Amino acid sequence: MEYIQKIKSPIGTLTVSSDGTNVTGLWIEGQKYFARTLEKGVLEKNVPIFESVRDWLGVYFSGKRPNFTPPLVPKGNLFQKSIWDILCKIPYGQTTTYGAIADEYGQANNGKPTSARAVGGAVGHNPISILIPCHRVVGKNNDLTGYAGGLHRKKVLLKLEGVEYNV
């Protein structure tokens, strides 16, 4: 069974999903691929993990770095999950590039090369926005590039973290 709850935030209404123990999704209303990984027949119910998510978001949107992360179990293929694991290592207030992620993925996989474009596809399909910080990925010259939630929201999130970028 999968549960959902809507949470108001400074960037719009968020829909968070859980298997009852872990966060399985977090989407911004209107974003590309909204609720793409949700099971059919979800139940809107307040399960304990949602309190942890609300606490994390409260700290984050107050402009501070949360000192905990709720348990995350994103749904995707092995490649996507590998890329999302790399995203989770990007420190608060810092960015990286699609190319750097591709290099890190290759090094972790016995030099198996992958393209920045393939990384971009996995980043764009991240089902747990904000908590898995795909908004911290920028273009090779620190250029602001796509975000499933919209560039206007990516700007807000990066500004909140004190990150400078090129427009």
At the fourth level of CATH, the homologous superfamily of the largest domain is Winged helix-like DNA-binding domain superfamily/Winged helix DNA-binding domain
Order of strands across the widest beta sheet? 3-2-1-4
Level-2 CATH architecture of the largest domain? Orthogonal Bundle
Overall, the morphology is globular
- The N- to C-terminal Cα distance equals 42 Å
Compute the gyration radius: what is it?
15 Å
- Stated plainly, the CATH topology of the largest domain is called Arc Repressor Mutant, subunit A
The protein's oligomeric status is single chain
Number of domains: 2
Topology record:
Layout: E1 3-7, E2 14-18, E3 23-28, E4 43-44, H1 48-61, H2 78-87, E5 96-97, H3 98-108, H4 116-124, E6 137-138, H5 151-160
How would you summarize what this structure contains?
This protein is of the alpha/beta class and 167 residues long. A 4-stranded mixed β-sheet has the order 3-2-1-4, covered by helices on one side.
